[in-house]
Design goal:
Elements (H helix, E strand, L loop, with lengths): L13 E4 L5 H9 L4 E6 L7 E2 L1 H10 L4 E5 L4 H11 L3 E4 L5 H10 L5 E8 L10 H14 L3 E8 L2 E2 L8 H10 L4 E3 L8 H8 L3 E4 L4 E3 L2 E2 L1 H14 L1
Parallel strand pairs: 1-2, 1-10, 2-3, 2-4, 4-5, 5-6, 6-7, 7-9, 9-10
Antiparallel strand pairs: 7-8, 11-12
Helix pairs in contact: 3-4, 4-5, 5-6, 7-8
């Protein structure tokens, strides 16, 4: 199944604040200049998960583009989420095959981007970084119609939401050779965001737990500090 021809996308170094559950945090993300905000939609294992209806409510209240983070590989289910939430992008956290990704892409209108989370082991397992395999996964995703990769940290529980940093040297190698723009996620906080940008040179930074005071509750001071340090590092 081929993906629709939606044209080229322009990318830049962006900030995405993910795991938004509250209007106050949505406004905070916009205030510090975030390019995107993310909702974790119907993923029960995440303490930041919200219902489709709440994600839609946050999207309607937003002044910045909305990214719906999903784990389901069911194209019809994702289409229903999109119809309700009307996001700018869907971020898929799944080990789905390229054919399944292409099927999801074909369900989405051209103006809605499909992003794919690709997991790397935590930094403590740096010797296990599969750079070549990760690049192959990215190339296959690009052919299936994915617009961006979110390079996150993976554990046995899944990719994302770990609060752990992966091997940024390997991530930098992947960014340099990637056929798609990459947003770096996993354990990023105000203290290490500048180092992340300098070391990896990603096209974007994706943060959640690193700017929280409790799961799903952002800390205004941490959010502002991270945004300022990110801008200083660019």
């Amino acid at each position: 199944m081929s993906a629709p021809d939606c044209g080229d996308k322009v990318t830049q170094i962006d900030l995405k604040i993910c795991g938004i559950t509250r209007i106050a945090d949505l406004r905070l993300a916009a205030r510090v200049g975030a390019a995107f905000f993310g909702t974790i939609v119907a993923i029960p294992r995440s303490p930041r998960s919200v219902s489709v209806q709440r994600a839609a409510m946050l999207g309607r209240a937003a002044k910045i583009p909305h990214v719906c983070v999903v784990e389901t590989e069911n194209p019809a289910a994702i289409s229903d989420i999109v119809a309700t939430c009307r996001p700018a992008a869907v971020q898929l956290h799944s080990d789905a095959e390229a054919s399944a990704i292409a099927a999801i892409r074909s369900e989405l209108a051209c103006e809605i981007e499909l992003w794919l989370a690709v997991g790397l082991p935590p930094r403590a397992e740096a010797g296990q970084i599969p750079v070549a395999e990760t690049l192959q996964r990215i190339n296959e995703a690009a052919e299936a119609g994915v617009a961006r990769i979110v390079l996150d940290t993976a554990t046995s529980a899944g990719t994302g939401g770990t609060g752990k940093v992966s091997d940024w040297q390997a991530a930098a190698e992947i960014v340099q050779q990637s056929s798609l723009p990459i947003m770096l996620a996993g354990g990023i906080n105000p203290d290490n965001v500048a180092r992340a940008v300098v070391t990896v040179s990603p096209q974007g930074i994706d943060v959640s737990s690193g700017v929280e005071r409790a799961p799903g509750v952002k800390d205004p001071k941490k959010v502002a500090e991270l945004a300022a340090r990110l801008q200083d590092a660019i």
